[in-house]
C-alpha cells in the first residue's frame, strides 16, 4: 500500500485517497494475496537488520554509560540514553554492512508491488532488472537509504526512551509500555522521514510515467535528482505521499520489535541472575 500510494504519477486505476480505499481496491481488482507481494524479501532482511540494530544499540549504551560514569558527571549520565540512539544508527548502517547485501531487497520488493508489475517472482525480478538495467540498479537509492536510516533510527530510539521515561520510569519489564512506546516511536520516526522514503521509492521503482512527464530519459539516479523530481511532480505535498500508510505500517512493526526485544532481554537477564544466585 505504501509503495502504491507513494507513486507520483500513478495509473488512473491505481489512484487511492486513503489506505482503506487502496486496500479494498487492490483486493477486489487484483486478488486477496496481492497486498502481500514481496513479503518473502521483507522477511529475509528483517531478522539480520533488527539483530544489528539492537546489538549496536546495547553496545553503544553500555560504552557511553561506562565512559560517563568514570567521568562522574551526573548530567551526562542522564543524557546517555539520548546520545546512544544518535550514535547507534551510524554503526548500524555503514557502507560495508547494511546496504551492500540488504538494499537490493527493497528494490525487488517495491518493483513487485507496483501497479501492473511485470515480475512474477523474486528471481524473475532480479534477473530482469540485472539484465536490462545492470547490477547498479539495485543501489540507486544507496545514499538516500543511508541518509534516511540515521535520522529514522535516532528519532525512533530517542522517542522510545522518552516514552519509557514517561510511562515506565522504573524501567521494569512491562509489555504494555513497550508496545505503546514502540508504536509511538515508529510513528514519529516514520512521519519525519517520509520525504526521504518517497525519494527512495522513486529511485527504486524508476516510475516510467513520472520520469517521462518531466522529460527524464533513461534512469534517475542520485538523492538530489530524486528530491528535485519529486518537487517538480508533486510540490511540497509530494514529499509526504503515502505518509499515512507508512505510519500505519511502522507502528505495529516497531511495537512488535520492541516488545520482542524487551521480552528476550528480560528473559535472558532474569535467567542469568537466577543462575548467579544459585551459585
TrEMBL record:
The record's Solcar repeats, renumbered to this chain, cover 1-63, 72-166, 173-267
Places the protein is found: Mitochondrion membrane
Task: Name the predominant localization.
Answer: mitochondrion
Pfam families referenced in this protein's UniProt entry, alphabetically: Mito_carr
The alphabetical list of record keywords is: Ion transport, Iron, Iron transport, Membrane, Mitochondrion, Transmembrane, Transmembrane helix, Transport
Among PROSITE patterns, the record links this protein to: SOLCAR (PS50920)
Among its keywords, does the record have ATP-binding? no
**One GO CC annotation:** mitochondrial membrane
Record GO biological process = iron import into the mitochondrion
The catalytic activity, as recorded, is: Fe(2+)(in) = Fe(2+)(out)
Q: Which InterPro entries does the record match to this protein?
A: MCP_dom_sf, MCP_transmembrane
State the coiled-coil residue ranges.
none
Q: Which GO terms describe its molecular function?
A: ferrous iron transmembrane transporter activity
Q: How does it sit in the membrane?
A: Multi-pass membrane protein
Main function: Mitochondrial iron transporter that specifically mediates iron uptake in developing erythroid cells, thereby playing an essential role in heme biosynthesis.
Q: What family does this belong to?
A: Belongs to the mitochondrial carrier (TC 2.A.29) family.
Q: What is this protein called?
A: Mitoferrin-1
- Native organism is Pygoscelis adeliae
Amino acid at each position: 500500500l505504501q509503495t502504491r500510494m507513494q507513486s507520483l504519477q500513478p495509473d488512473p486505476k491505481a489512484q487511492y485517497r486513503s489506505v482503506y480505499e487502496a486496500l479494498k481496491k487492490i483486493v477486489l481488482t487484483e486478488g486477496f494475496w496481492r497486498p502481500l507481494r514481496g513479503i518473502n524479501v521483507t522477511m529475509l532482511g528483517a531478522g539480520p537488520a533488527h539483530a544489528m540494530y539492537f546489538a549496536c544499540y546495547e553496545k553503544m549504551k553500555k560504552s557511553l554509560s561506562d565512559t560517563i560514569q568514570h567521568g562522574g558527571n551526573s548530567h551526562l549520565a542522564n543524557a546517555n540514553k539520548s546520545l546512544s540512539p544518535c550514535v547507534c544508527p551510524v554503526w548500524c548502517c555503514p557502507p560495508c554492512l547494511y546496504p551492500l547485501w540488504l538494499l537490493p531487497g527493497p528494490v525487488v520488493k517495491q518493483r513487485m508491488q507496483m501497479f501492473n508489475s511485470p515480475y512474477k517472482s523474486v528471481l524473475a525480478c532480479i534477473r530482469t532488472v540485472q539484465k536490462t538495467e545492470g547490477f547498479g540498479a539495485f543501489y540507486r537509492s544507496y545514499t538516500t537509504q543511508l541518509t534516511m536510516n540515521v535520522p529514522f533510527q535516532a528519532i525512533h530510539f530517542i522517542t522510545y526512551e522518552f516514552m519509557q521515561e514517561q510511562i515506565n520510569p522504573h524501567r521494569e519489564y512491562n509489555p504494555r509500555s513497550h508496545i505503546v512506546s514502540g508504536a509511538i516511536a515508529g510513528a514519529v520516526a516514520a512521519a519525519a522521514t517520509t520525504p526521504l522514503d518517497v525519494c527512495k521509492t522513486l529511485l527504486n521503482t524508476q516510475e516510467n510515467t513520472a520520469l517521462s512527464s518531466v522529460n527524464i530519459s533513461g534512469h534517475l539516479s542520485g538523492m538530489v535528482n530524486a528530491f528535485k523530481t519529486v518537487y517538480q511532480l508533486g510540490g511540497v505535498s509530494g514529499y509526504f505521499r503515502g505518509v499515512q500508510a507508512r505510519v500505519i505500517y511502522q507502528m505495529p512493526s516497531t511495537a512488535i520489535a520492541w516488545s520482542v526485544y524487551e521480552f528476550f532481554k528480560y528473559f535472558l537477564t532474569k535467567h542469568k541472575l537466577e543462575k548467579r544466585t544459585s551459585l
